[in-house]
Structures are given as C-alpha cells and as structure tokens.
C-alpha cells in the first residue's frame, strides 16, 4: 500500500476542516479516489453556480473578511478565465455568493452582468492591497499567529514586507536561519494571490512545501523533479497559494505565469538563495541569471491588466558586496530596489578551527569526543541500533563524481601545484566518460552532479503538491529563541553544557561520507551518509530520520543542501577545507537555529594548501574560485582575529561587537607576538634580489638591493617560486637550514597582507607562489634596521614550530627533500616492486612516455622531475 495514500475518513476530515461540505467530498471520493487535489478539482468542476460550497482555507478566510477584497479579486480573475469551471471560477462564484450576502454587486457568468460588475468596480489588482493599507501589519501579525504560531514579525521581515507593500523590488540579506521565508510567504496570505518562489533545490522546495502544508497553506513545486504533470496545470490555474519553481523551469512557464498573473494574480516573485545568480559567489547557477525575464515580462507595459509591475523579492544569507551588486544588475531589479541588510552575526555559534590530516588515521582522535557525546564507544552499540549502510559500498558510485581523495595526498606538498583548471582535473579524476559528459553542459547532467553543482534534482520526491492541512496547535509551535547579543549573556551561555541535538559532518567527497558514517556506526553512533550518488530511498530515509531526531549524525557532501532548517542542530563539523567562506558560513549556519549555543568546527590540514574540487569553470570563474578558496584558507590560518568577526566582515559588515567571546581565538587568546624582523628582512631581500636578477636584463629596474651572486645558481632569470627562495635562504643561512617551508609560507602571507609583497604570477593561487617585492616592501627593507616587526604567527607557522622535525612536512621521508637527487631516489624507492619493474620496462622502451599517476601530487611531482632530468 502506498504510504502516502490517505483513507477516505482522513480526506473527509481534512477537507471538512478546509470548509468543503461532507456530502460533496463523499461524492467526489467515489469518482476520483482519495487524492485531495483530485477531490478538490472534482468538486470545483461539478459544483453548480447557484450552490457553491466555499472552501474555508486561509485563502477564502483571509478574503472573506473583507468584502472589497473578494469582489476585486473576482474581477481580476474575470479577465481571462474561461467559461469552464476552474478553481478561479469557483472562487469567483464563492466570492460572489459571499458578496451577495453583504449586499455588494456581484455578477454571474453572463457577460452583461460581468460588465455591470466592472462598472461598479473598475479598479483591480493592487487595490486589494490598498484595502489593507491601514492595517496590513496588524493583519500580517494575525496571520502569522494563526498559521505559524509566532507572536510578531521580526523587524527585517517588516522592512521587507513594507517594501513589497510599496510595490518595490527588494533584496533581503539576512543571516542563515533568521526567517527569510516568511517575507515571501506572508504576501500570499495577505492578498489571496499566488506567490511564485524560485528556489534552487528540489529537497529545499519539498521541505518548504511540507512545512507550509503543516501551517495550513497550500503549496507545490514545479521542475524537473516533479513527477506529477497535473500539478503544473493546477498551479498555473491558481490552485496553490505558493508555487515553488526551479530556475530552469521558469523560462518555459513565462506565458502560463502571465495568464496566472492576469487571472488569480501573482502577489510577488521571490528568488530564494539569490547568491546563485552570481559568478562571484558560490553555487553559481546559470539559469538564475536568466531570471531577469521576470522583470521584463511582468510589467504593466507587457500585461495591460496589471496596475503595477509585479514586485520581485530576492533573498540570501551569503552575499558579499560584489555579489549583491551583481544580483541587482543581473536580475534587472528596479533602480528603486530596497535593500534590507541585517547583521550576518550569529551570536550563539561557537567557531573553532582544528588541525587534522582529515584522513582515516585521524578519525580516532577527531571523533572520539563525538562518539562519547552520543554515548557510543561500544562496538555493539549497546542498546542503540546503529543505522546500517550495508546497501552502500564504499567503492560504489558514491565516490565517483567528486571524489578528490585521489588528488589530495598528504605526502608531498611543497612543490604541489594547485589543483588546476577544471578540464585537467576532470581528466585526472580518471573517468574519461564522465569527462566527456561534463563537456556537455546540459541540465540533465547538472542533475546528476549535485555534489559539485547544486542543482534542482538533488532529491526526487514522491509528490510535489501539498494540500492544506490544519495548522498545528499552538503548543506544537515554539518561537525560536532570539540568541543573546549581549556579551554577558554570551559568556554565560559558554559555561553551560551544549544541549542535545544532532550533528552534521560536511566532507568534500562522496567516498568520505560513507567511510565516516560507517566508522561512527561501528562505535554505536546512529549515523548515516548523505551524498547525491546514494540511492534515493536511502536519501529520503536519511532526511526523514534526521528531521525526526532518530539520527544523531549525518555525514554529508554539500548535497545535504541549502535551507536545511532544523532548530536543534548542535554541531556542524567541516572535515576538510570548504571551497569558500560563503559555503562554509551557510553550512555552519544550520547549527543553533533555536538560539542556543552550537558548535561549528572546521577540521583542516593546516599543513596543506586546499585544492579546488573538480568542476566546470570558465577562466574567470576559476580565478574567482581560487580567490574564494584562498580567503577560506586564510580564515583557517588566522590565529589572532575573532572568527565571527572575520566571517561577518567578509560579507562586508562592520562587526560592532569586537569579539564574539565564544570562538577558539576569543577563548584561548592569540599566540604570543614575535618579532620577526630578521626573517622578514631576509625573505624580502631574497625576493628583491631574485626580482632584481630577473629584471636586470631590463635595465630599467632600479636595483637598490644587494644580492649575492650565489643566487644565480638558483635559477637566474627564472621567476623564483617561494619554494626556491626558501631553498636559497636555507643554503645561505646556516641558522635557517632546518626551517620548514610551512613556516616561510606563513610569513609570506603576513608580508603579503601588509602589502610588502604581491603575487607575481598572473594565475591566482591559494597561497602566494611567486612573490614579488612591492614599493612598500622596498621601503620597508630600506628602513628595516630602524624598526621591529612584531606579528602573530599564523597557524602553519605554529604548527611548524611545534614539530621538531627538520625540513619537509613532518616525515622522515621528507628529510633532505630539497635535494633533487635525494628526491629522485626517494620517489624511485617508494614505488612498489611491480611498479619499479614496470618503470624499468618503460625506460627500456625508448621514446615511450612513463605514465605517472597525475591524480596524486607525488605523481605529478615525479612527472615534473622526470621532465627536468
Ligand atoms: N517572526 C518569527 N518569529 C519566530 N520565529 C520565526 C519568525 N520567522 C521565522 N521564524 C523561524 O525561523 C526559522 C528559520 O526560518 P527560515 O527557514 O525562513 O530561515 P532562512 O532565513 O530562510 O534560513 P536559510 O538562510 O538557512 O534559508 C524557522 O524555523 C522559522 O519558523
Ligand atoms: Mg531560506
């Protein structure tokens, strides 16, 4: 039996609550079965004009409280309504019946009467709104209380609604979990018109539709994930108050939506997660850019029956200044667009960064706390039954598409090139077929690749239409607690233990989701993996169990998407570098929506530069992706600035609190400042010397800095990489012989942040790679003898000083790595006997290229070295 099907009794009781007459419902059930939408449709189609039974959904309720509203909507719907009985027609009849009772002129189907009606009520459309001018706030509060159980609108919600009410376009920038959805849901309730919401993910639309249904508001979603093709038809005839559409579908629906605008009416177009519009943000979706069609096609000049252009409300929690400007421009929002900007600060989130190699070997150290918290650490799981993943093999499809395990080896990093341009990456990821498919930029493809591209069809769902259920009782609803903004309260919160609640662990690869979930299950934690490569059934189950608090931990890729709105998520763990701070803050923002203390922990290998995940990007976008990744890297490396401040300021907000008091930097304090005058001076001089050496061919370069001729050995005329420069320093200065590149990288970042050096490569890198001295740097070097240079060492510098191992990255294997001959021998000896045999063979076959595994940095390095031999 279909678990979604309802019994006749259930349908009757729900529909009676909606205001339908029992006998009509019974009659309809006999004909069309127990699907509520079909029953509603049947009743509409068979009801006689003279005796319509008004459904007392919120639509008719909100309208019937105001006679004028009813009749005007009737008129508005009369513009294009066909003679056949549709829901609009039904509403007309309903409204008219109600009007008759109130002695208001109402027309019947016949044209004369309609004309008569028009004479009496010549105004249409937003007169509906002007009727509620005086007390719309009061009405909104009543509806808010009735449908959602909240006592009042938040001030940013009021601001956004006021803008909508003044028919202005509006861009709402408000923190994750602040309540942006209400800004576009209330207009549907206030006007009885339809609100069309553009949303990027099926799972997000599905979640929101379910919630709306619970709150007594009819909703549906349209898009490639919609299995029922009658839903679209019904939606375009105005049967749902809120219609969610994925951006790819909007273009196709322009005409039907225009008809809808002229019949039942469209109160608002809401574009949720609008940062997807911009290439300069994360989650870019090309179809979002084409949403400018909404501004073009729903204006008074295009649709004569409209009195005003239909307002557009765009909403996001993560947009930098550049992204905001791009949104306004790309969507062609009006010049008069109102921008609602609230603080991005989430005062109850405790941000921490921890060093971890984020590999299998570090699970024990990193997860033992978590296992303890969930009462695990028992191989059999005690009384708890771990959520099994038997149906999912680690080697299955789950790890296929965005698996970067193969590209992120931990062994060698120093000469590591950043994981480069998308195309190469895809080739390197080993799946040529996939690569070919990737070249075709089709929507179908996007839909299969959601871990990398957040697309519409991330989770197929059984049904995309949602009928009104009675709103939950008051006691079932609780206002979210506003988190404490006052410092004393935050400090107090810190002393209290974390409340109970689930954890989400975000990892970059599909394979990792399964591996970690299995690991946790083994220790009795109820954990499940979530990535777009897993069976849909499993994904649905995970979603459900997560929302029902049955699961303790979900280990997910970014496919556990935007808009996950569960109030009691206590921990968000990022296990591996995120791709941008936007993505990081949005994902972290899923914690602590109940206003109580919640943890956001980033475990990252601070000894490695993060790499870009394989993806299709234009040159521009690759550059931007590197910039975003680099900002994220800097966030992790920072040791002295409050984490919340860094995040909030990243989004262009002035952080007025100075400190969050909760994050690891605020709690532990910054490390001791060190005077790195000598080191800075040596590095700058070495850079200067190499630069001078390069430019000496061009005599215009004014060389003020002395450089040793020994440097010429180290690549005269070549563009010196930081690695080469450090090697040069190590050779020249005995005291720095055993210093690690990690430490110098940290110093280079500090010097770059101060403006003393800049990247000399025209490619953007995560970390400065080919440093060049700036004017400021030159000044600094000249005056170096007179000053000190106190700085906070960055995370990688601290890491290096904590390990007493000499040069290269924490392994005996790495000792002497600077010497090319030693390096060659090591690479040779590190190969397995079979590999060695085959390499010998390959060498014998002259002219034939030795194949390197370019997916690993070691392989790439070996390939490079063999080129130079
Ligand atoms: N006026 C209000 N009073 C109390 N709670 C509210 C109010 N408005 C919204 N909320 C609650 O806030 C929570 C978050 O709402 P919502 O999902 O709209 O957030 P959001 O801003 O869209 O977040 P995200 O950026 O993650 O999508 C919901 O559980 C909602 O019920
Ligand atoms: Mg939202």
From TrEMBL:
Residue ranges annotated for the Helicase C-terminal domain, each copy included: 486-648
Recorded GO MF terms: 3'-5' DNA helicase activity; ATP binding; ATP hydrolysis activity; four-way junction helicase activity; nucleic acid binding
Subcellular localization(s) per the UniProt record: Nucleus
Disordered: region residues: 398-431, 824-869
EC number: 5.6.2.4
Catalysed transformations (reactions): ATP + H2O = ADP + phosphate + H(+); Couples ATP hydrolysis with the unwinding of duplex DNA by translocating in the 3'-5' direction
GO BP term (any one): double-strand break repair via homologous recombination
SUPFAM superfamilies noted in UniProt: P-loop containing nucleoside triphosphate hydrolases (SSF52540)
Biased amino acid composition, Acidic residues: 411-423
Residues covered by the UBA domain: 6-46
InterPro entries: DEAD/DEAH_box_helicase_dom (IPR011545), DNA_helicase_ATP-dep_RecQ (IPR004589), Helicase_ATP-bd (IPR014001), Helicase_C-like (IPR001650), P-loop_NTPase (IPR027417), RecQ_Zn-bd (IPR032284), UBA (IPR015940), WH-like_DNA-bd_sf (IPR036388)
Family the entry assigns: Belongs to the helicase family. RecQ subfamily.
Name the record gives this protein: ATP-dependent DNA helicase
Organism: Cicer arietinum (Chickpea)
């Amino acid at each position: 039996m279909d678990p979604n099907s309802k019994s006749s009794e259930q349908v009757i009781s729900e529909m009676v609550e909606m205001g339908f007459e029992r006998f009509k419902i019974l009659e309809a059930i006999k004909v069309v079965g127990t699907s509520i939408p079909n029953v509603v449709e049947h009743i509409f189609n068979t009801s006689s004009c003279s005796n319509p039974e008004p459904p007392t959904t919120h639509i008719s309720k909100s309208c019937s409280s105001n006679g004028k509203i009813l009749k005007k909507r009737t008129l508005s719907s009369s513009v294009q309504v066909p003679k056949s009985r549709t829901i609009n027609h039904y509403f007309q009849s309903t409204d008219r019946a109600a009007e008759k009772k109130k002695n208001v002129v109402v027309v019947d189907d016949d044209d004369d009467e309609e004309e008569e009606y028009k004479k009496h009520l010549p105004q249409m459309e937003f007169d509906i709104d002007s009727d509620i001018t005086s007390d719309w706030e009061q009405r909104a509060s009543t509806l808010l209380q009735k449908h959602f159980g909240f006592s009042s609108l938040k001030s940013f919600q009021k601001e956004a609604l006021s803008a909508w009410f003044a028919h202005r376009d509006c861009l709402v920038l408000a923190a994750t979990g602040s309540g942006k959805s209400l800004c576009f849901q209330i207009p549907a309730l206030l006007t009885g018109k339809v609100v069309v919401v553009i949303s990027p993910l099926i799972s997000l639309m599905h979640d929101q539709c379910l919630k709306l249904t619970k709150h007594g508001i009819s909703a549906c979603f349209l898009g490639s994930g919609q299995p029922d093709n009658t839903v679209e038809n019904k939606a375009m005839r105005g049967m749902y108050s809120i219609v969610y559409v994925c951006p790819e579908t909007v273009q196709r629906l322009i005409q039907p939506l225009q008809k809808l605008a002229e019949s039942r009416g469209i109160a608002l177009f809401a574009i949720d997660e609008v940062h997807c519009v911009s290439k300069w943000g994360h989650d870019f979706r090309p179809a979002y850019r084409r949403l400018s069609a909404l501004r073009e096609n729903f204006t008074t000049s295009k649709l004569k029956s409209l009195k005003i252009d239909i307002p557009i409300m765009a909403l996001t929690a993560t947009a930098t200044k550049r992204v905001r400007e791009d949104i306004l421009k790309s969507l062609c929002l009006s010049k008069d667009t109102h921008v609602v900007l609230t603080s991005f600060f989430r005062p109850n989130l405790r941000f921490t960064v921890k060093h971890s190699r984020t590999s299998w070997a570090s699970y024990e150290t990193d997860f033992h706390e978590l296992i303890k918290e969930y009462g695990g650490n028992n191989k059999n799981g005690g009384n708890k039954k771990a959520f099994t993943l038997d149906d999912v093999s680690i080697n299955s499809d789950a790890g296929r598409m965005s698996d970067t395990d193969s590209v992120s080896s931990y062994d060698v990093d120093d000469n590591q090139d950043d994981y480069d341009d998308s195309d190469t990456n895809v080739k390197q990821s080993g799946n040529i077929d996939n690569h070919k498919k990737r070249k075709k930029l089709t929507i179908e493809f996007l839909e299969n690749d959601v871990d990398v591209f957040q697309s519409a069809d991330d989770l197929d769902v059984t049904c995309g239409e949602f009928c009104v259920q009675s709103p939950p009782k008051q006691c079932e609803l609780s206002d979210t607690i506003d988190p404490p903004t006052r410092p004393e309260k935050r400090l107090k919160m810190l002393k209290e233990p974390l409340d109970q609640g689930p954890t989400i662990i975000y990892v970059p690869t599909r394979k990792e989701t399964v591996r970690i979930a299995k690991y946790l299950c083994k220790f009795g934690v109820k954990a499940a993996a979530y990535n777009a490569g897993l069976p849909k059934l499993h994904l649905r189950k995970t979603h459900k169990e997560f929302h029902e608090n049955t699961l303790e931990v979900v280990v997910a890729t970014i496919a556990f998407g935007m808009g996950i709105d569960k109030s009691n998520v206590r921990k968000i763990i990022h296990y591996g570098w995120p791709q941008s701070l936007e993505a990081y803050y949005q994902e972290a923002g899923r914690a602590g929506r109940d206003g109580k203390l919640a943890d956001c922990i980033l475990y990252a290998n601070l000894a490695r530069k993060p790499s870009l995940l394989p993806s299709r990007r234009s040159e521009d976008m690759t550059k931007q992706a590197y910039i975003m990744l680099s900002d994220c890297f800097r966030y992790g490396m920072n040791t002295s600035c409050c984490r919340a401040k860094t995040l909030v300021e990243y989004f262009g907000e002035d952080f007025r609190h100075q400190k969050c008091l909760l994050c690891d930097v605020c709690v532990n304090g910054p490390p001791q400042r060190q005077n790195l005058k000598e080191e800075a001076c040596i590095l700058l001089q070495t850079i200067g010397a190499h630069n001078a050496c390069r430019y000496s061919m061009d005599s215009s370069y004014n060389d003020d800095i002395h450089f040793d001729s020994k440097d010429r050995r180290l690549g005269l005329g070549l563009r010196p990489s930081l690695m080469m420069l450090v090697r040069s320093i190590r050779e020249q200065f005995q005291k720095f012989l055993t210093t690690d590149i990690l430490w110098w990288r940290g110093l280079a970042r500090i010097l770059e942040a101060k403006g003393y050096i800049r990247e000399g490569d025209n490619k953007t890198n995560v970390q400065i790679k080919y440093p060049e001295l700036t004017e400021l740097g030159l000044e600094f070097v000249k005056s170096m003898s007179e000053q000190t240079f106190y700085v906070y060492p960055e995370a990688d510098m601290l890491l290096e000083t904590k390990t007493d191992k000499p040069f290269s990255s924490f392994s005996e294997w790495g000792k002497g790595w600077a010497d090319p001959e030693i390096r060659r021998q090591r690479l040779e000896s590190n190969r397995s006997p079979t590999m060695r045999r085959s390499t010998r063979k390959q060498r014998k076959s002259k002219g034939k290229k030795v194949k390197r595994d370019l997916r690993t940095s070691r392989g790439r390095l070996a390939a490079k070295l063999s080129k130079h031999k």
